[in-house]
Amino acid sequence: MYIRNEDTICAPATVPGTGAISVIRVSGPEAHSIADKVIRCRRGNISDAKGYTIRFGTVLDGSENTIDEVLVSVFRAPHSYTGENSVEISCHASSFIVTSIMDLLYAAGARAAEPGEFTQRAYLNGKMDLAQAEAVADVIASQNAAAHRIAFKQMKGGFSSELKTMRGELLELVSLMELELDFSEEEVEFADRSRLDSLLDQITTHVSKLIDSFRLGNAIKNGVPVAIAGATNTGKSTLLNALLGEDRAIVSDVHGTTRDTIEETLNIGGVLFRFIDTAGLRETEEVVEKIGIERTFKKISEASIVLGMVDLTRDFDSTCDTVREIVSKVDFDTQKLVILLNKTDICEVNKNVNIVNFIVSSLENKSIANFVENSVCNLENLGNQSNGTTEIVPISAKTGSGIENLRQILAASQRDLLGDSDTTLVTNQRHVQALSDARTSLLRVREGLASGLPTDLAAQDIREAIYHLGSIVGEISTDEVLGNIFRNFCIGK
């Protein structure tokens, strides 16, 4: 385990110069006495103040000149974020003031905190487990309501509670199995095998659901990946610019302008989307463009949502080729496809009945029956056509017609996936790996019991599963793991 450091540490918890107030944190055994050396309070010393109180004071330099007037929040161990004696100094957000106070704290005996050291101390002092500590960074980095909700639930211990429950049940069973070994000569069976089978099924299913949730959880945390795909000059880059409200991608009449992927994020309805403008699909011998098209296919496979661009002004055969290519690359079990009928400002949808009919038939070949029902024969009234997995939406990326409608469709698709339930979503790659290792051990137990594996070997596999689940919350951890986690935190957290 990490060796506890008894130094008193300090760091700005806010960025100087970006607001009216900055907060400087001090934590450690000497936090109160060090603060007394730097801040002169009008009524008594900080060392004598009760926890959860605020003192007004003045910070003076070595020549007794006033640097700032401050408020000092006092916390006493173990009732603080770190579990140690702590103070938080609220001063004006001048870079000069913050730097001056920090220099005085150093001179009084504190040292600069390392990245994440406050949260690391909170973990080491039992204020939170490792999964909760990692969630602190996710809460700080959250850019939308969905990501914040997931991270905040983990920080409050929802995910950890599930893991601890599973570990507790497995520990009870493995203890009974090992007790059997002590009475092996009497052939006593303490662990109910039917209950063991049932529990293994239950926990393995739970672990599998957590692993499967990573695709959605990671998408919400880092942005739901949305690939914009289609032939060259169908309006993909124009669409990206229209969604973002700025000229992010180059728009040109020249075919093959976009050679590489362009990615930008946008918050829609409280969910962060990561839009990926891809190279246009066409036959080409140009080496760089071919690499770009290969990347397009890769981004389509990685996306949660695929926006397939169809140019209503194009000839029937080339449009059909593009639709076939896009539809063939989409996994309808895990991905949502939105076919965008673009350039409605210069070509009416009802003039392209053959194209729309072909799109519908292509989708029906993917077992999407009754997709548009009778509306294909009544295209002048064509709006959004949807079966939940795929939608057809008329738009004009140039004029903005239908763009707001597309935004609503994207937001609604993710509300349906996330919902308002308390379902835990895994967002951390380290957690997914540990869960996968735990599931492998549990499956090995099932196979072993079915084949008559000796009790001691089955018990060892269960202990491995317990180990992997425990590594997520920090029941088992190493200096290397802790170092990798906390070095990615910001200073002051």
The backbone outline, from C-alpha atoms, is flat
**Mean pLDDT, as a whole number?**
80
CATH topology of the largest domain: Rossmann fold
CATH superfamily of the largest domain: P-loop containing nucleotide triphosphate hydrolases
Oligomer status: single chain
What is the total domain count?
3
**Tally of helical runs:** 16
Helix content: 40-55%
pLDDT below 50 for ≥5 consecutive residues: which ranges? 250-259, 367-387
Which strand order does the major sheet show? 3-4-5-6-2-1-7
Task: Write out key terms for the chains shown.
493 residues; alpha/beta; Gyrase A, domain 2; Four Helix Bundle (Hemerythrin (Met), subunit A); Rossmann fold; 3 domains; seven-stranded mixed sheet; 16 helices; 14 strands
Please outline the helices and strands.
Elements (H helix, E strand, L loop, with lengths): L8 E4 L8 E7 L3 H8 E3 L11 E8 L5 E10 L10 E7 L2 H14 L2 E2 L4 H8 L5 H12 L3 H11 L2 H25 L10 H20 L1 H9 L1 E7 L5 H9 L17 E7 L2 E7 L9 H16 L2 E7 L4 H14 L6 E7 L10 H12 L20 E2 L3 E5 L8 H16 L10 H22 L4 H19 L5 H8 L7
Parallel strand pairs: 1-7, 8-10, 8-11, 11-12, 12-14
Antiparallel strand pairs: 1-2, 2-6, 3-4, 4-5, 5-6, 9-10, 13-14
